[in-house]
Design a protein that fits this description.
With 179 residues, the protein is mostly helical. It contains 7 helices and no strands. The longest helix is centred in the first third of the chain and has 36 residues. Keywords: Membrane, Transmembrane, Transmembrane helix.
């Protein structure tokens, strides 16, 4: 009996590892965790989710405000490019931190955080391209490079929507440039 009590934490850690690395479906991992912890794991997750009731809307609001605010900084202020650039990078930092935070906790909004992060990277890279590398195809080239990056990241992280978006954006840029 004492030996079983020593094994249970090892088994629980192993199930967490399976769940984190997607070796088993999450539903099965939750079932096994509930089985080995006598339901304590589900209670802990419910308590954590209860604590997130305040944080969740704030995270969502922060994510949704970042992109429009970056447009305001670029197009509706009379700040010089040297001042706009740090503001844009300051806006990029919370998006990056939220994305990392949500990835670690497997938050349901992690794909939204990634989308906002990639949109901010696109906006900033187009802004940098148009400010410092003025050329006839600068914007198209920057967007094409971003779309290739989206495709590669989507392939690495197994995100089909990102791969499709990358391909569609690249096709759109090619058609726009040719026509």
């Amino acid at each position: 009996m004492k030996r079983n009590k020593e094994r249970i934490p090892i088994i629980i850690n192993e199930i967490h590892y399976w769940k984190k690395h997607r070796l088993l479906p999450a539903a099965q991992c939750d079932f096994l965790l509930a089985l080995y912890t006598n339901g304590e794991e589900a209670k802990n997750q419910a308590a954590l989710q209860g604590g997130n009731r305040i944080v969740f809307p704030l995270q969502l609001l922060a994510l949704l405000v970042l992109v429009p605010f970056s447009f305001i900084v670029i197009y509706f202020t009379k700040l010089s490019a040297i001042l706009q650039m740090p503001i844009l990078f300051i806006l990029l930092l919370p998006a990056l931190l939220l994305y990392i935070f949500m990835i670690k906790r497997e938050h349901p909004l992690r794909n939204l955080a990634l989308t906002v992060l990639l949109m901010l990277v696109l906006i900033i890279s187009v802004f940098i391209g148009n400010t410092y590398f003025k050329g006839p195809l600068t914007t198209e080239l920057v967007i094409a490079l971003n779309s290739v990056g989206w495709f590669i990241y989507g392939r690495l992280k197994r995100l089909p929507y990102l791969k499709v978006t990358g391909v569609l954006a690249l096709l759109f840029v090619i058609v726009y440039t040719v026509l």
